[in-house]
């Protein structure tokens, strides 16, 4: 008898201990069936907290390096260093921005780090307003936090840092100096918000503790079925975001007659692919932290091979998508990669939601998962 | 901004051929049981609008190329229109009794549906909540319901992200729940403008499109997206809302408003905001006007409030239930779930029918 077939009263006890018996060949490690509580614990401690630390470190480097650009008068070396730090931060955030519960949801932190989608160019317009007004008080530490979320994060900083016609820090007039100082203030703000999210998770009364102490006296989560659902929903959300932010808009645009250009995240910095790839890699890690592989239904053993193949294909296509876009946009190879990614993203998501999660007693109902 | 909707429309037109087949197979006899309609996902992953009987029969299954949301009902003419969910690029009009083939129509290229609409009281026009993708403004699209579903006009919804709109019992005033945020059709359903949300309930004269009254929320709870509405016989408008902020900050989710009365959040529900996971899926008022029912699918509950006192009077535990509508009795409600269940209940008891393989979508309507 496998744990999934145990009476419910015994299943919770067994789930944390028993090794599933249906995995392929004896040479392979057998996947462990984690309990809900262990899934949440591993997600937080093995996936989330290390990534929050990495984001805090990367954004700290970004704040330092953008400040250095202004101090160095915008020399190329300093700008390259800032651009590299920007890339590090974008990649770090790509692995976290689908975690849409907990501290990132407070005080608009999600949008303050990355304001997207921005179909009407809100960030650019608001930024121009600030540059025109040149208010010195906005450069004070913490002052940007009270401004529009559109000018506080990566979207706004990218506009300033990757403007080839107007290299950051290069001018000596007041406007150029203010522009650079504003960029430094934005980078510092990103670091501050990243720090708030990190502290919000890991502090004494942080969200980590709230999630790990689900119970009748916990106002947010009554038991581990509720906390594990948050974690599993984040995985489904992340897969949808990759599809809806990158793959579908690009596929729709290149197959339009005549073809159009889709406006994708982080195009000015050339980090579109990096961001997507970072998200995909993180989603795979989250999938592993939850331990979903152990919950392939016994009557659907084909999934045991399908899932790793789909993940592998997804990561490979994600890694080469940027190159395909740049060198052969609209080619058969490009279209094939996009269609395959759409298929894999949808397939993995659907298997998680409709097969693995129910088999792990994680309820993600049709309306519950995506209501309106 | 032109929205690419080819795949949605083509898909819907293709599936209409299948719908003709389905219609031909139907028996057109008058069913004895109370009937309900809802969008649904079927076992094969496809989407359809279903007309089901309380006794467990599926009377009609009309395929759709994408997920539907709510259904506008023209009871007098036994017809209905289901709107594609946000961002929706088609609507499907169908005869409740299957006597005519369905029609598909679409919003203009720079608009999309938000999933809700309502017929004019004489059935000649249909009002749909829409998004102007160029400006981000909420709109009410006006469609000719006498034939062809041509779009004949529009007026503002007087807010961002209009969701449910109901025609009040005066037959002239449209109450619109402006949820407060929009989305970019290019990127699908991802919310935009959360930080600048200003949700409201707007009262609009449908004859002129003029704003008669508009009531917003206190700034402290402006992340409370007002989504769904129901009117009592005494003219109170009850609403259910969805919190867009952190779970621990969730306020009460149910409130009352009138054309000449500002929004009042249901005080006794204060502690329920977090417990209901910040989300009300739909609301309905009983035929006798005494009870409000609100579904909370994230919490697996339907709660009932006394419309006089505003107190929560009872609740039903039911998994993944979002659709809620009037049952046949004076204080009866019917609720639908993502597990294919339709449960009809009042204080005295409940009857349940299960439609195997169907996952009912957010809204259920009695037809």
Tell me what you see in this structure.
The complex is a heterodimer of chains A (372) and B (367). Chain A has 372 residues and is mainly α. Chain A has 13 helices and no strands. The longest helix of chain A is centred in the N-terminal third of the chain and has 36 residues, at 36-71. Chain A is globular and about 70 Å long. Chain B is mostly beta strands and 367 residues long. Chain B has a single domain (6-366), classed as YVTN repeat-like/Quinoprotein amine dehydrogenase (Methylamine Dehydrogenase, Chain H, 7 Propeller), CATH 2.130.10. In chain B, the strands form 8 sheets. Chain B has a 4-stranded antiparallel sheet with strand order 3-2-1-30. Chain B has a 4-stranded antiparallel sheet with strand order 4-5-6-7, covered by helices on one side. A 4-stranded antiparallel sheet of chain B has the order 8-9-10-11, with no helix packed on it. At the A-B interface, helix 9 and helix 13 of A face strand 30 of B.
């Amino acid at each position: 008898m496998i744990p999934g077939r145990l009476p419910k009263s015994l299943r919770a006890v067994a789930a944390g201990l028993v090794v599933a018996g249906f995995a392929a060949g004896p040479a392979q490690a057998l996947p462990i069936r984690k309990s809900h509580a262990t899934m949440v614990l591993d997600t937080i401690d093995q996936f989330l907290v290390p990534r929050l630390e990495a984001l805090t470190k990367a954004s700290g480097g970004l704040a330092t390096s953008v400040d250095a650009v202004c101090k160095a008068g915008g020399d190329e070396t300093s700008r390259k260093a800032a651009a590299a730090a920007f890339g590090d931060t974008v990649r770090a955030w790509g692995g976290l921005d689908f975690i849409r519960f907990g501290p990132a949801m407070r005080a608009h932190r999600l949008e303050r780090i990355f304001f997207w989608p921005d179909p009407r160019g809100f960030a650019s317009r608001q930024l121009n307003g600030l540059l025109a007004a040149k208010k010195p008080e906005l450069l004070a530490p913490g002052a940007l936090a009270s401004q529009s979320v559109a000018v506080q994060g990566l979207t706004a900083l990218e506009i300033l840092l990757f403007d080839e016609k107007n290299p950051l820090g290069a001018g000596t007039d007041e406007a150029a100096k203010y522009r650079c100082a504003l960029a430094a203030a934005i980078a510092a703000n990103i670091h501050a918000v990243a720090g708030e999210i990190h502290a919000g998770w890991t502090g004494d009364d942080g969200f980590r503790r709230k999630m790990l102490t689900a119970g009748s006296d916990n106002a947010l989560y009554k038991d581990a079925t509720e906390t594990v659902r948050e974690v599993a929903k984040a995985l489904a959300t992340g897969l949808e975001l990759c599809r809806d932010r990158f793959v579908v808009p690009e596929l729709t645009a290149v197959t339009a007659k005549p073809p159009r250009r889709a406006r994708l995240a982080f195009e000015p910095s050339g980090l579109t692919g990096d961001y997507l790839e970072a998200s995909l890699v993180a989603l795979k890690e989250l999938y592993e932290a939850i331990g979903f592989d152990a919950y392939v239904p016994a009557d659907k053993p084909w999934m045991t091979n399908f899932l790793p193949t789909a993940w592998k294909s997804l990561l490979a296509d994600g890694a080469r998508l940027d190159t395909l876009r740049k060198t052969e946009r609209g080619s058969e190879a490009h279209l094939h990669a996009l269609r395959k990614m759409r298929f894999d993203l949808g397939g993995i998501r659907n298997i998680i939601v409709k097969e693995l999660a129910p088999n792990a007693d994680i309820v993600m109902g049709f309306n519950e998962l995506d209501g309106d | 901004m032109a929205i690419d909707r080819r795949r949605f429309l083509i898909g819907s037109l293709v599936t209409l051929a299948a719908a003709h087949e389905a219609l031909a197979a139907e028996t057109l006899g008058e069913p004895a049981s109370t009937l309900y309609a809802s969008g649904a996902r079927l076992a094969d992953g496809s989407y359809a609008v279903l007309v089901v009987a309380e006794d467990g029969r599926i009377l009609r299954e009309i395929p759709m190329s994408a997920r539907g949301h709510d259904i506008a009902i023209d009871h007098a003419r036994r017809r209905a229109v289901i709107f594609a969910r946000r961002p929706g690029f088609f609507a499907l009009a169908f005869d409740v009794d299957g006597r005519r083939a369905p029609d598909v129509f679409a919003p203009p290229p720079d608009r999309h549906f938000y999933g809700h609409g309502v017929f004019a009281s004489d059935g000649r026009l249909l009002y749909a909540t829409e998004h102007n993708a160029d400006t981000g403004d909420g709109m009410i699209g006006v469609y000719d319901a006498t034939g062809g579903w041509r779009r004949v006009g529009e007026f503002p919804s007087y807010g961002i992200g209009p969701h449910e709109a109901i025609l009040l019992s005066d037959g002239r005033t449209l109450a619109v729940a402006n949820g407060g945020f929009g989305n970019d059709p290019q990127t699908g359903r991802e919310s935009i403008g959360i930080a600048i949300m200003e949700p409201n309930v707007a009262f609009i004269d449908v004859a002129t499109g003029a704003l008669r009254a508009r009531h917003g929320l206190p700034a402290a709870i402006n992340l409370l997206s007002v989504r769904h509405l129901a009117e009592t016989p005494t003219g109170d408008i009850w609403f259910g809302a969805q919190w867009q902020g952190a779970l621990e900050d969730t306020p009460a989710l149910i409130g009352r408003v009138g054309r000449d009365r500002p929004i009042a959040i249901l005080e006794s529900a204060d502690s329920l905001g977090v417990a209901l996971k910040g989300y009300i899926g739909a609301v309905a008022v009983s035929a006798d006007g005494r009870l409000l029912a609100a579904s909370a699918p994230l919490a697996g509950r339907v709660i009932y409030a006394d419309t006089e006192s505003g107190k929560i009077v009872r609740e039903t535990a039911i998994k993944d239930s979002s659709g809620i509508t009037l049952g046949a009795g004076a204080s009866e409600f019917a609720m639908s779930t993502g597990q294919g269940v339709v449960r009809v209940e009042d204080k005295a008891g409940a009857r349940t029918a299960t439609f195997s393989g169907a996952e009912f979508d957010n809204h259920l309507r009695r037809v």
